[in-house]
Structure to design on (133 residues):
């Protein structure tokens, strides 16, 4: 069976964010952000991306690679949704992808999308327990 090649077209959009503080912040987003800030201190955690429909927080060891981490995160979440639909798996609770040196844990909580990047030896099960409400 021949493998089907897919091409991924990148669309780059410049986004300018003004530092605006809303008096009606999403309490779930705020709580997740606090939890992730604590998780970021755990040995082996490289960083995280937290996105909602109106806000995003990024904390990475290598801030120059924000685009790469964001693309990985987005592709993981989109691909998991496609696979779930294709095989009628229902809602995906979390996704873990392991590479040679690192791994990434992604999940969706309400309207918030979370990606946590870590070294291969980090305990992703412990981190998952810390994030989930």
């Amino acid at each position: 069976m021949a493998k089907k090649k897919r091409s991924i077209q990148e669309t780059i959009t410049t986004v300018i964010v003004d530092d605006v503080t809303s008096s009606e912040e999403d309490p779930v987003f705020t709580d997740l952000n606090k939890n992730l800030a604590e998780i970021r201190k755990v040995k082996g955690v490289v960083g995280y991306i937290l996105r909602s429909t109106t806000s995003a927080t990024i904390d990475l060891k290598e801030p120059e690679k924000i685009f790469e981490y964001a693309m990985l995160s987005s592709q993981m979440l989109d691909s998991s949704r496609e696979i779930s639909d294709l095989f009628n798996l229902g809602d995906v609770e979390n996704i873990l992808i392991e590479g040679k040196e690192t791994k990434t844990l992604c999940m969706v909580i309400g309207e918030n999308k979370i990606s946590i990047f870590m070294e291969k030896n980090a305990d992703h099960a412990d981190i998952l327990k810390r994030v989930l409400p």
In short: The chain is about 30% helix and 25% strand. Helices lie at 27-39, 66-86, 124-131. Confidence is low (pLDDT under 50) at residues 7-23.
